[in-house]
Design goal:
The longest helix has 24 residues. This protein has eleven helices and no strands. The chain is mostly helical.
């Protein structure tokens, strides 16, 4: 039922997109061009460690300069940071605990899996097959754009997982699954550090990992120590605040979504020549507005 409703909701915008795509150059793109917009797998380390590739200052991670086969991506496309808390919830409650595969959660889990496989593009065998055989796939330029769907679905799923924790408590222990998932997470971070070491930034990347690990450990401890329903509700509120603070600390006003105020200082105290230009621009805008235009 949910799948049917989802299909109905997306059918109209998809059909309109395919109709107007003929007006652009995108339908004429070949597979090898589309594959250059793939997400390099080591970028998944950024889900929990935002600055592991120096994105806050000077980017050194996988991209056109370091991985030519991803020439049609950049550090803004590849930025995946969601925070330590959502990653802990996904891996611990969702995967190890198995809650992500429960009824009512499986659809979101499937969306995440499909979006991730799509975003990886050339790094799985499925995108090339889908490009030739799945209607509509060859209309879109970059596989990495699936990151938008991936992160949105991840946000919804982790919210459900946290509410499940408040109602039911911790999932039962699964030692083998826990060790496997933990080893996979460590391997992904180690891959990112090793990649950074190619450009002489291995130590910097490792330091960034050390900054993120305490947040994850703290979230695990807070969730694990809550034994009653009231305590679990409090723990959920606390880790939610940690998640918000983590996102705000790294994402508010940094170079991918803002520019330095100094770049626009001319608007605060313009020099005479600059003031004349600004005054002329404002006058022309007012004139066009008076004519009924919306410049």
């Amino acid at each position: 039922c949910m799948a049917g409703i989802g299909f109905v909701l997306v059918a109209a915008p998809l059909l309109l997109t395919m109709q107007f795509a003929a007006l652009s150059n995108r339908p004429s793109l070949a597979l090898d061009i589309a594959l250059k917009g793939s997400l390099y797998p080591a970028h998944l380390a950024q889900l929990i460690v935002p600055n592991i590739y120096g994105v806050q200052d000077t980017f050194w991670g996988p991209g056109p300069a370091t991985v030519p086969e991803t020439a049609y991506t950049d550090d803004s496309f590849n930025y995946l940071f969601v925070g330590a808390v959502p990653v802990v919830l996904l891996l611990w409650f969702g995967v190890v605990g198995g809650w992500a595969f429960r009824r009512g959660r499986a659809l979101l889990t499937g969306v995440i899996a499909v979006a991730l496989v799509y975003a990886l593009g050339r790094y799985t065998p499925l995108f090339a097959w889908a490009f030739d055989w799945v209607p509509g796939v060859n209309k879109f330029r970059r596989p990495v754009d699936a990151n938008f769907v991936l992160i949105a679905a991840l946000a919804l799923l982790t919210g459900h997982l946290l509410s499940d924790y408040v109602r039911a408590g911790l999932p039962r222990r699964r030692i083998l699954a826990s060790v496997t998932i933990a080893a996979g997470a460590v391997a992904m971070l180690a891959w990112a550090v090793a990649f950074s070491a190619r450009s002489g930034n291995g130590v910097d990347a490792f330091v960034e990992v050390l900054k993120a690990v305490p947040i994850a450990i703290g979230a695990i401890a807070i969730l694990a120590l809550a034994r009653t329903a009231r305590a679990r509700a409090t723990a959920a509120a606390v880790v939610t605040l940690i998640a918000v603070a983590d996102l705000m600390w790294w994402n508010v006003g940094f170079r991918l979504n803002a520019e330095r105020r100094a770049n626009y200082s001319v608007l605060d105290q313009p020099k005479p020549a600059d003031a004349q230009v600004l005054e002329r621009v404002e006058r022309l805008v007012r004139e066009r507005q008076a004519a009924g235009e919306r410049p």
